[in-house]
Hints:
The structure is a single chain. This protein is an all-alpha fold. It is built from 8 helices and no strands. It has helices spanning 7-22, 31-49, 52-67, 76-94, 97-112, 121-139, 142-157, 166-184. The protein is globular, with a radius of gyration of 18 Å. The N and C termini lie far apart (46 Å).
Amino acid sequence: FEQSGRHGDLEEAISLHREALELRSAPHPDRSFSLNNIATVLSTRFEQSGRHEDLEEAISLLREALELLPAPHPGRSHFLNNIANALLTRFKQSGRHEDLEEAISLLREALELRPAPHPDRPNFLNNIANVLSTRFEQSGRYEDLEEAVSLHREALELRPAPHPGRSSSLNNIANVLSKRFEQSG
């Protein structure tokens, strides 16, 4: 679907993921991954169609998947990130401040599961910094902007040249520093 944009492919993917899930009833060890897979394609369909039911179901499935992966399960941080992204999407659609707060909380937990020198840590640092920047835009809480700068700086330090993600980290910190300049004049 992502290559061709054929909606039939997306519908078939959802159907097949649902069938796989039926074969992985609790306590199947891969049930959480099937739940995550369905949630991912439902989120994609939401992005394409705007059907709120898809986003709601994706969030529900991700919550169920997360319950099946207690800390310190190695996949938990990615599931936390996925549900935080879905909540952020819902926040952008509905303006529900609770979704933004929960997304930040989940991303903080995910970050704790990725201490330095974990190779995914810079991605998680950037994710939470971006969401804090969003909260700053909504609430004007200057502390969020300061923390976003700090988190982006840490991500940049973990991506020395010639790291392929360094340019992204440079752009992220430049954007948040510009925002801070605009606030302080």
